[in-house]
Every structure is written in C-alpha cells, then in structure tokens.
Design goal:
Structural class: mainly beta
Strand order of the largest sheet: 1-2-3-4-5-6-7-8-9-10-11-12-13-14-15-16
Shape: globular
Largest sheet: 16 strands, antiparallel, barrel
Helix content: 10-25%
Length: about 350
Amino acid sequence: MRNFLLPFLALVLIGSTAVTFPRLSVEHKAPCKSCHVSPSGGGMRNEFANYAVALNELTLPATKDIAVKNYKAPRLSESLTFGFDTRHLIFDDGTMFRMQADFFANVELFENMNYTLRFSETGITENYGIFYTNKKKYFVRFGRFAPSFGLKQSDHKSFNRERLGHGSLDYLDGFGVGIDIGGHLISAEIMNYGKQSIFMGHFMKTANLNSVGVFGGSSVQLPEKEAGHTRYPQAKALFGGLSYNRLTMMGEVDLVGSSNDTLISYLNLTTRLEYGVYLISEYNFFDGNRDIADGTEEYYRFSLEFYPISFFQIRPSYTYYTEGIKKDKTDFFVQVHLGY
C-alpha cells in the first residue's frame, strides 16, 4: 500500500498548478487569509469564517436556522474582536486529555494595522502585529507567532507537524515580510530559537479550474546551524490539494536534513456526507533512517467529523499503526472541540 500511495501523492502534487492547505481553502478556492487573521492561515478566525463559512457549511441543515437566528458576532467594539478554541480527547478507557484551551483577541490599532494575542493557561503564548500596505498587497509581521511552513492541518501530532517543530504549542519570536497578489502568497520569515536563527520561506496559491478547486505551494526551513536532533531541522516541503463536489484531497511531502535522507508524507481524503458531517481518511508516513534504527513509521486514521452546530465539533477517530514501535496496534478516541 505504501508503494502505491507515495507515488500517487507525488503525481497529484506535480500535476496540479497549485498546492494545498486545509480542506476549506481548497473547497472554496480561496486563500487561508479569507478565514484567518494570519496571512498563512491557522490560529484566530475572523468574522467571515465564523458567519459566512461556519454557519453556512459546518452547521447541520437541521440546526442551521436556529444557529443563524441566534448568531452573535465575535466583536466587542469597532476595533476589538475575539475568539477561542478548546479541544479535549476522550479515550476508550474513559480518560480525558486536554489538547488546547486558548482565547484570542485581535485589536485594529490603526487602519491596516492589527495586533493579535493568544492566551492559554501558561499566559500569552502568541502575540504579533501585522501592518498592510498598498491595498493589503504587502505586509510586515513581527512578534511571536507560528512559523509559516507546509500544511496547517488540525492534527498537530502528525509526523510532518510535530517532528519539524510545528506542533500546537510551537511559537517563535520573529519578523516576516510578504506579498499577496492575485492569490499568490509569498513570505519570508526570520525566527529565533534558542541561540540560532531560522529562515522560513513559504509560497502558496489557490485557484479555480473549471469547478475544481486547486491549492498548492512549497516551503523551506533553514536553521542557522544544524546539529543532530535540532527542534527545527533543515527541511523542504511540497504540498497540494484538489477538491471537486463532495471530495477533497490534500497532502504534503517533506525532505528533511541537509542530505534529504529523511522522508515525511501526509495524505488526507475528506468526503462530505452532508453539510456538517464529514468522513475523513488520513495517512502518515515517516522514514527517518538517519535517527531511527528501523527507519519507518506509518499509520492510518479514519474519522467521522460531526458539527451539531458551527462552533461545536465531535470527531471519533480510529487509528491503525502498520509500522514502527506501535506496529499492529490501534487507538480509538473522540475529539470534542469548541471554537469560535
């Protein structure tokens, strides 16, 4: 199966004119900034995401009218908006694990200048300012934020997220500049980790090709010096996605290390059974022959994503491990997410 999936993913990425981000961007043929405060996606959502997208797409048809009539905008004043995310995992033995508990605030200091903060149990974990110019074609970002690299899928424990330093709690002090013209986003960032600097280069493009949504891009991560098991190793990413009707597919391939001797790949296929109900299949592969004796880890995950209302998600997931230290083992858990 692995011998089939990896070449198939590569063909999809090479054959498309763009590459991918999370599925809603591919489905709507729109850049991630349409729904997020951050130009590269992830983190705090804006009002358009909460109303135009979440209420109209993620809410079950049976409860949509109730949700629309009782919708409250996440705005405290003309210049201040807010949001929150809390996620818990409930395992098959009844135990619970808290994944996330964040509160967001976004202040429009001046026209075309915003400041965003993320509050968690440990205090302020993310805070950055963004200044736009020339009708928001160009921007400068500064502060502490998540580096722009690869896909920002919701599974922060996937190999291509966690092992490249892009987990759910990984924010770095940095400075970045970007250009957003005609759906093309190009950004460059200098981040600080410990005693070294890390350069992040990121490109993405979203397009509509005869009712087929395509989304693609590439990223590069270059630490000032690479010493063994650094948290942010040298890495290159190619990611992409396609969406048609009820089906959306996206994936990412990463080459890690100065000699490209570590391979990480991710593949996601999402089927919309009904608005508010999604069937999701995921594939994760890691070949780390530089650091791991057996060199290979692999697992499949199958989930049912259910939104009784736009800001409340229930997601039971079954995971089967086919390679690595958990080979032939399975996991079952239910993710409960409340976010606005």
